[in-house]
Amino acid sequence: MSDSAQPEGLRKSHAFAHTVSFVLSLLSMITAGTIYLFSLYSTSVSQKLSYNQTQAAIIASCGGYGLYLSGPLAGALADSVGPRIVLRFSSLLLFAGYSLMALAYDHWSFVRTEWWAFAAYFFLVGLGSSGAYNSALATNMRNFDKKHHGFAVGFSVAFVGLSAFIFSLFSPFFYIPADDNDFELKGGGVPIPEGKTLDTFRFLLFLAISCAVLNLIASLGLQDFSDSRNPKPTESIPDESTPLLHGTSNPPQSSTPSSDYTREQVLRSPDSYLLFFSFLIQTGTGLMVINNIGAIVLALVNASPEQLGPKLHALQSFYVSLLSVCNALGRVTTGVASDFARRTWGTQRTVFFLFACSLMVVGNAVGAFGVESLGDGDGLWSWPLGIATTLIGLAYGAVFATAPASVGAMFGTLNYGSIWGMFQWGPALGGQTNNLVFGVLYDANREPEETGFAAAALGKCIGPKCFQGAFYWTTATTALTVVLASILVYRRWGRGE
Fold this sequence. Notes:
- This protein has 17 helices and two strands.
- It has helices at 8-32, 38-49, 53-69, 71-80, 83-105, 115-143, 149-168, 200-218, 263-267, 270-300, 305-345, 349-369, 383-411, 416-423, 425-444, 454-457, 465-494, and strands spanning 175-177, 196-198.
């Protein structure tokens, strides 16, 4: 990534600084994915602060709003003022958001505890996550050659997916004895005699401090080296906007004057709308499952209230971690595979996006028609729910690896931060829609008079009817994305790509 004529010492120094910058970007990506932890503590927050599932779904969506609606601004700032300043603001926002959530949970007198206030605190977390994510991603896209964008995107955003898994590993350090007498929560979770439960207050403070510190560390060394890369004017591998990976090997054969689009040109491109609406539906579906997996597990747990605590937290932690790991695997494997396929066979990145859309349909169909219970065994894995969770996690990760790389390949990297920021409105709109669908259907199926399930004692919904309607909806909508993505692939190939 430096000119071969440079002195050896300068080249090594440049390579070392580039490596440090990439490693530090991964720290920022880890903090950007903490909103996916919401299911780990959402049931304890809802029980402690008396929120229903619709209100909990709105809170989860507000984190997504902060993360995705601010994408154009965060990306534009990363393009204009550089990543370091944005990361410092992100550390402040993450610290403020999680701290206020912790204080509200613990009923501090000067902090509002209404659901709309808690949603506002989580919105701050989303804003901070957006700054961390967009700074790291835009910088890596410019620092890496286009033929390695699959790796640059897939590997770095994998740490967003791994975030929930990494931080959930620390949750056992925040277990405390549960209250022995009643259902009044003491520090988090659902209490059980002689059981353990998550101390949600201290865990949220831990998130506040760790996210702030990691982003401050990243701000010390994350930097844009694109000016020193001295790219050649032509390459043997074409770009997506002419063909796929690199930008100027052939003259443009459409109305696009160069491989680097402006935002106005993107808004006039039909292909951008095919990708945007497919991305909106796919990510909205993934966010619905990520934000509500805890409620799904709670609806299926066949346990008395006295037995619930350890079993519920173990199951919720397992499925949150499973989603996180599969999310990360989907991002890494798809990113690297798209690089390899493009170099070897000239395969478009949008082909991998189509594959991800198809995988999401299958996962949601399993959730709609296959998940009836958690099974009779004592283990954490349940075949129907485990398969659905695995497929949805892999598909969600693959979507988030292929869509950013496709945007860079189709529209260039000069204005990448602001252009990709516009696409991030998709998850905000899709996530809110699907979270509301899930919350409304979940609450509509509550039958508190039923007994024998811990969920009934907590006034929650019981059984697969709580979430099947939402999965019917997402199965149908994700099937539509297969059609849209197929049209996109055809249109790109129709240009000789």
